[in-house]
Design brief:
single chain; mainly beta; 128 residues
Length: 128
């Protein structure tokens, strides 16, 4: 069983920055593919970013490319999402996700079905 705990959400003005963290339990974090998704009421969960075991490969959703950066620290069992140049449309609950199956890094990780563990989410609100 893997537990994921997000932190770092909050209220920020447009143009500002936030860094989300996701701490994971488990002794094999370095073999988990990690991802971030976001969701607003009445909408489907939207892919934000994903990162491979080593951190050497990443994917980003089109709406966040060039503004958000995903990274990980395997020694700390933590994945991060640095969010810069925030816009009001980035307002959402942000979820951390993990896949513990050790599959190769592919576009499957741009979809919620690619993951088998989820955090509870953290609210990010961007004011205009």
């Amino acid at each position: 069983q893997v537990q994921l705990v997000e932190s770092g959400g909050g209220l920020v003005q447009a143009g500002g920055s936030l860094r989300l963290s996701c701490a994971a339990s488990g002794r094999t974090f370095s073999r988990y593919t990690m991802g971030w998704f976001r969701q607003t009421p009445g909408k489907e969960r939207e892919f934000v970013a994903a990162i491979s075991f080593s951190g050497g490969s990443t994917y980003y959703g089109d709406s966040v490319k060039g503004r958000f950066t995903i990274s990980r620290d395997n020694a700390k069992n933590t994945v991060y999402l640095q969010m810069d140049s925030l816009k009001p449309e980035d307002t959402a609950v942000y979820f951390c996700a993990a896949d513990s199956s050790a599959r190769y890094f592919s576009t499957r990780y741009q979809f919620p079905d690619g993951y088998n563990y989820w955090g509870q989410g953290t609210q990010v609100t961007v004011s205009s």
